[in-house]
Design a protein that fits this description.
Blueprint (H helix, E strand, L loop, with lengths): L5 H14 L2 E5 L5 H11 L2 E3 L4 H8 L4 E5 L5 H17 L3 E4 L7 H13 L4 E5 H7 L6 E2 L2 E2 L6 H12 L2 E5 L3 E4 L4 E4 L12 H15 L3 H22 L3 H13 L3 H7 L2 E3 L1
Parallel strand pairs: 1-2, 1-3, 3-4, 4-5, 5-8
Antiparallel strand pairs: 6-7, 8-9, 9-10, 10-11
Helix pairs in contact: 1-8, 1-9, 1-11, 2-8, 2-10, 3-4, 4-5, 6-7, 8-9, 9-10
């Protein structure tokens, strides 16, 4: 990919701010407000439309659909399937966050149904979830991955080829691939694991980036780098979880292309 460089990754931030993509988030009840606020700070327009009677029509006017399976109710399950169908019909990009799929068999069943009736452009999960979906053994505890990351990129590549999509496996290092091109991001701070919803917020950012950029791989890399750089900036000012969480939103708002280019620790594979 000729335009695969830190400049193109950083430019996605400006594309988001210029386009103000409308991102419909069907997400878990723990992090709805966090996802909405971080999207606003990033420059996007958040919507939390998950009512079964509304999602089909709302998705078709959205820039992207973010599906998070964290606290999946029967009502949400029905809405997710219908939203996925609408996204496929109307060619709206879909980001899937397969929360706890390695721990709860029902989640895998719902993912299979989404793949049957709809489409997924990006799968963003922790290393354990990605390994599980790729058919590899994984070490998880509920929604958390206990995996050390070994073999994560190979699993992500296999999953990307299986579904013809972008896959991001997050952890101490983040692995992103479209099956042909791959990167490893080494930014971020451990404090991101000490607040609720950092992964959910990241998924929402992926929705905004993909809703504003035609290149889904570069957009995903940009969203993940943005979250990590913002985390590093926030930790400079706040070294405890409560204040860090607030400062993280501020740091997303204060991001610039220059900060991404200067601070990005990316290895191209």
């Amino acid at each position: 990919m000729d335009n695969l460089n830190l400049d193109s990754v950083s430019k996605v931030l400006t594309q988001v701010k210029n386009k103000v993509p409308l991102v419909d988030c069907i997400t878990n009840s723990v992090t709805i407000n966090d996802c909405a606020n971080i999207l606003l700070s990033y420059g996007a327009s958040p919507a939390m439309c998950e009512a079964y009677d509304e999602v089909f029509d709302f998705v078709k006017i959205s820039s992207a659909l973010y599906i998070n399976l964290g606290t999946l109710t029967k009502e949400q399950e029905a809405a997710v399937i219908l939203a996925s169908t609408s996204a496929k019909i109307h060619n709206i990009p879909v980001i899937l966050d397969p929360v706890a799929c390695a721990a709860i068999p029902r989640k895998a069943q719902v993912i299979n149904r989404i793949m049957q009736v709809g489409k997924v452009d990006v799968i963003k999960g922790n290393v354990g979830e990605i390994k599980f979906l790729a058919g590899q053994s994984s070490n998880v505890r509920g929604v958390d991955s206990l995996d050390n990351g070994e073999g994560a990129l190979d699993s992500a590549v296999a999953l990307a080829k299986k579904y013809n999509c972008v896959v991001a496996a997050t952890g101490k290092e983040d692995f992103i691939t479209d099956g042909k091109n791959s990167v490893v991001i080494q930014n971020g701070v451990e404090m991101l694991t000490k607040i609720t919803g950092s992964g959910c917020m990241l998924g929402a950012l992926c929705g905004a980036a993909i809703g504003a950029s035609e290149n889904k791989f570069i957009a995903t890399v940009s969203a993940i780098l943005s979250m990590n750089i913002a985390g590093e900036e926030a930790y400079k000012a706040a070294k405890a979880p409560g204040t860090f969480r607030v400062k993280l939103i501020d740091s997303i708002y204060e991001l610039t292309e220059e900060k991404l280019k200067k601070g990005g620790k990316i290895t191209w594979k």
